[in-house]
Amino acid sequence: MRPRPAAGAGLLLALLSAVTFATSGTFARSLIDAGWSAEAIVVARVGIAAVVLLVPAALALRGRWHVLRRNLGAVTVFGLLGVATAQACFFNAVRYLPVGVALLLEYLGIILVVAWMWAMHGQRPRRLTVVGSVAALAGLAFVLDLTGAGRLDPVGVLWGLGAAVGLAGYFVLAGRVDEELPSVTMASGGMGVGAAVLAALGLLGVLPLEAEFGTVTFAGQRTSWLVPIAGLSLVAAVVAYLAGIAATRVLGSRLASFVGLTEVMFAVLIAWLFLAELPTAVQLLGGVLIVAGVALVRLDELRATPARPADEPADQPALT
């Protein structure tokens, strides 16, 4: 049994990771309102973060470069789907939707993983997973509020669901990666691939890479564009990843990811405090159902599979 202080430190690190990840939508909103494209925001965020994490990623390999070479394909697909697709779709969703709603739609990706594993691998979901999935889908109906006055922009909803597909791919790929490949190396490599591909597509004119290097409005104050960029890359990426990785070493990957569900709550609170964005009462009810449903799916995983030892390689933290 782990000593109580270590478990407490792990819990604090997991909460720090959730809080810092939750700031991404709020930081991005100020750039989007200033004229930045979602793709340009992702390139700046993950490109800077990949460079900052390059040294710890190399140190984690400790000269075992053959591990990275044999996983280049997995890292590339992870970067394309779990990083570029998930984040570009999420930030595009934030263009049309409140930050909290966009994140709730993205988190439906965990439910998509259940469907994928059932359809492709015959892993029939257990009763608790089914209940959680039904609750999450019911919550989606409330979040969309199809008959209410607060109906959501369908374009934003489609982007949010695209982010869910990217997140589902992220979890599927992270769960199948070579366990000898350190998490920080996987994260840095994936972010580097994602940034490079989006930048290349932007230079070719396939995707919009629009940026305004002037002042932006953040939390009601005019400030330099460097402030939200620094927040996105250093706080919402580097700190979030390192805290999440450290937390998984103490708590184990499944318990740490379970605590990570608080990211949704923190994202809604941060958007409320800094952007005055708050979902309607019906959407908040739907959000509670989605979080509860996802939590039940996670709880079912915790009950079904023993937690990993603290020193065993951990799954990746969430990518939002």
Number of structurally distinct domains: 1
Helicity, as a percent range: over 70%
Q: What integer value in Å does the Rg equal?
A: 19 Å
β-strand amount = under 5%
Morphology call: globular
Order of strands, main sheet, comes to: 1-2
Task: Return the string of H and E elements.
Answer: HHHHHHHHHHHEEHHHH
Q: How many alpha or pi helices?
A: 15
Which structural class do the helices and strands define? mainly alpha
Distance between the termini: 32 Å
Low-confidence stretches: 307-317
Describe the biggest sheet? 2 strands, antiparallel
Average the pLDDT over all residues and give the rounded result: 83
Count the beta strands: 2
Please give the structural blueprint:
Blueprint: H1 4-22, H2 24-33, H3 38-52, H4 54-61, H5 65-70, H6 72-96, H7 99-107, H8 109-121, H9 127-144, H10 154-176, H11 183-203, E1 215-218, E2 221-224, H12 226-251, H13 253-259, H14 262-275, H15 281-304
Helix pairs in contact: 1-12, 1-14, 2-6, 2-12, 3-6, 3-11, 3-12, 4-11, 6-7, 6-10, 6-11, 7-10, 7-14, 8-10, 9-15, 12-13, 13-15
